[in-house]
Structure formats: C-alpha cells, structure tokens
Write a structure and sequence with these properties.
- With 344 residues, the chain is an alpha/beta fold.
- The protein has 2 domains: 59 residues, DNA polymerase, domain 1 (Orthogonal Bundle), CATH 1.10.150.530; 264 residues, Aldolase class I (TIM Barrel, Alpha-Beta Barrel).
- It has 11 helices and 14 strands.
- The strands form 3 sheets. It has a 10-stranded mixed sheet, with helices on one face. It has a two-stranded parallel ribbon with strand order 1-2.
- Helix 5 crosses helix 6, helix 7 packs parallel to helix 9 and helix 10 runs parallel beside helix 11.
- The longest helix is centred in the middle third of the chain and has 15 residues.
- The radius of gyration is 21 Å and the shape is elongated.
- The two termini are 26 Å apart.
C-alpha cells in the first residue's frame, strides 16, 4: 500500500492478487488472468484486459496503480546492443541495457538509482547514490524492455546501475514474480545476480528458494589493491568474501562467475593472475575477463594493451583456469560494463 492508499500492481504477488479479489468477492482465477495480461501479454492498461468485466476493469483502474517507467531515450549500438533511459514516477532516471547475442537476448537490469559503493572504475559510482529501486520499478524496467523489444527476453543479469545485494528484499521479491509460473515464468537458470562482494547478501542468496546464478566483480586478487579500487573491500575483505563464495557453492552447487576488468598497469600484470588462482583455489570458477571500458569520471584509467591482455590470459591458461575474454558490447553508446549513469 502506498501513501495514497492505492495498491501498486507490480508490488503484488499472485497470492496478494487472490486475496484482493477474494475481498472483492471475485473468483480467485481472476488473479491468474490479470497476471497473464501484465506479465505475459505486456498489457498495462486495465481497460484493454478484454476477458474481465467492464465493472472489474473500472474497479481495478480506480484502486490498483499500474505504474510503468517512461522511456525517455533508446540508443542502439553498432553491435546491436540497446540502451534505455527510463524516468521513474518521482523524476529519478535509470538506465538498462538489452544485449543481443544472436540466438538470445539478455536484459541488464538496474537495482538502484546510482550506487553507494564508489568503485573507482565505475561511472555509476561517480554519480553517487539516491535510493533503492522498488520491486515494481525493477519489474517495470524488464517488462517495458520486453514490450519495446516486441518479444520475450529470456535472460536477466542484475548488472546495471547499483549493487543488487544492497537492495536484497526488493530484488528477491521481483525475482519471485519473474520466476512464478503464473506470472512471468522465467527459469531460475536464466537469472544472474552480480555483486561487488556484499557478504551477507551472498549468504542470503545461497539460502534463497530460487537457485540463482552468482557473478562476483573481483577486479583485484589481494586486499591492498582491492581496497584502492573497490572501497567495499574494507568492509568485506577477500577472506570473508571467499568464505561466502564457498558457502554459496556448497549450498547451491552452482558455478560462480568471476568478473575481472583489465586496467592498464593497475591490475593486469601476470602475477595477479597467479594470485587470483591461489585466492579462488577449490572454487573452480569461470573467469570473465573484461577489457576495461573507459569512463569520463576517471580519464587516467586506460584499457590494457593487447599484449598485456595476452600475457594475463597466458598465465591463466598455464594454470588451467577456464576463462573467457569478453567481447565488447555497447561501448560506443556508453552501455558497456561500468558505463551506465543518469541524472534527474
């Protein structure tokens, strides 16, 4: 219930809808019908829900807000990546990205307006932090992306603006709606949470009823360097972080992806690859190497040279660690990793 005593449709679970309709003396199957319209058909106007009575459509429109973010701008990269700028109901703006992988598409979703963590290589962190996104704003981003795209998007990564595990309750609530077979019906294996290393959130993720995939933004294999690049490490150091990763793997059996942005002469020396291998020993992670994407907030940071990237990759290969050098997507429209930002 919001301050105006209206319900917000995307804040409601299927059971919430059933309770609401029971209170209105409507049959419980109406809950599934409304959720089908919203989550499957992407119809966001009650008056267009043709299998509901006119009276019920009117009652819904008078009592249940169906607030979707407004698309302010859409940009398309030469590689097919699309970036969306959304305006929320309070005037705040966020960005999200649709990645085209040929055979499938992935939505990169934001969890906060800005970010409080201040990682030195991230443009989002440079804009500061305003607030968490609500459950409905998280869902609204994705559903609007599907509507604009004209088809379902069957992969979600929470790698947009913000730290998802600092907005855990709303993220988990949104994922329950996405995963519910009577709502969006998105499989758990198609949902990935990316974190900068929020240890309590990783522990909660390990125990979450929906077995989600985990991606960790590491970017440095020792505390001294990681403290400089990612201030969150001062609160949750690498020992605490790796312990949480082990707990997650033990509970879920899922393989963890490690994100590592290669920044020229900062974290790209081959010895850092050996340190990373020692740090993650026994976890058998998948290493996702990211050629650093330049950001206006830190013009002094540069992408590693091709030769330094090759040396780093060779070190990982010699250790028989599975890795991939990520193909850059969307950097020409500031849609690549670490480049998202927006303003009111």
């Amino acid at each position: 219930m919001n301050n105006n005593n209206f319900y917000e449709a995307l804040e409601l679970s299927l059971n919430d809808w059933k309770t609401l309709f029971a209170n209105w003396n409507e049959p419980s199957f109406r809950a599934g019908q409304v959720c089908q319209w919203i989550y499957a058909k992407k119809v966001f106007n009650y008056h267009d829900m043709s299998n509901l009575s006119k009276e019920l459509r009117t009652k819904l429109s008078e009592n249940i807000l169906l607030t979707m973010p407004i698309m302010i701008k859409q940009q398309k990269s030469q590689d097919g990546t699309k970036k969306f700028l959304w305006q929320l109901s309070d005037g705040n703006r966020i960005e999200s990205v649709l990645l085209n992988h040929g055979g499938h598409k992935t939505a990169c979703i934001s969890s906060q307006v800005g970010c409080p963590l201040g990682c030195v290589f991230c443009y989002t962190g440079a804009m500061g932090f305003s607030r968490n996104l609500t459950r409905s704003e998280i869902l609204g981003q994705f559903l609007m992306m599907e509507k604009v795209n004209g088809s379902d998007i069957n992969n979600i990564v929470f790698m947009g603006m913000g730290e998802p595990l600092l907005n855990e309750n709303n993220i988990f609530a949104a994922i329950r709606s996405l995963n519910d077979k009577n709502m969006r019906n998105l499989g758990a294996r198609h949902i990935t949470i990316s974190t900068s290393g929020i240890v309590p959130g990783i522990e909660d993720l390990a125990d979450f009823e929906v077995p989600l995939r985990l991606s960790l933004s590491l970017h440095a294999p020792n505390d001294a360097l990681r403290n400089k690049l990612m201030p969150v490490n001062k609160q949750y150091n690498l020992q605490k972080l790796v312990n949480a990763l082990r707990h997650y793997k033990e509970r879920t059996g899922e393989r963890i992806t490690i994100e590592y942005a290669l920044i020229d002469r900062v974290n790209d020396a081959p010895e850092y690859a050996y340190e990373m291998a020692a740090l993650l020993d026994g976890l058998e992670p998948y290493i996702n190497l990211i050629p650093f994407n330049t950001v206006p907030s830190r013009p002094d940071l540069k992408r590693s040279s091709e030769s330094r990237i090759k040396e780093f990759c060779a070190a990982l290969a010699s250790l028989k660690i599975e890795y991939e050098l990520r193909r850059e997507k969307g950097s020409d429209i500031m849609a690549a990793c670490g480049q998202l930002a927006s303003s009111k």
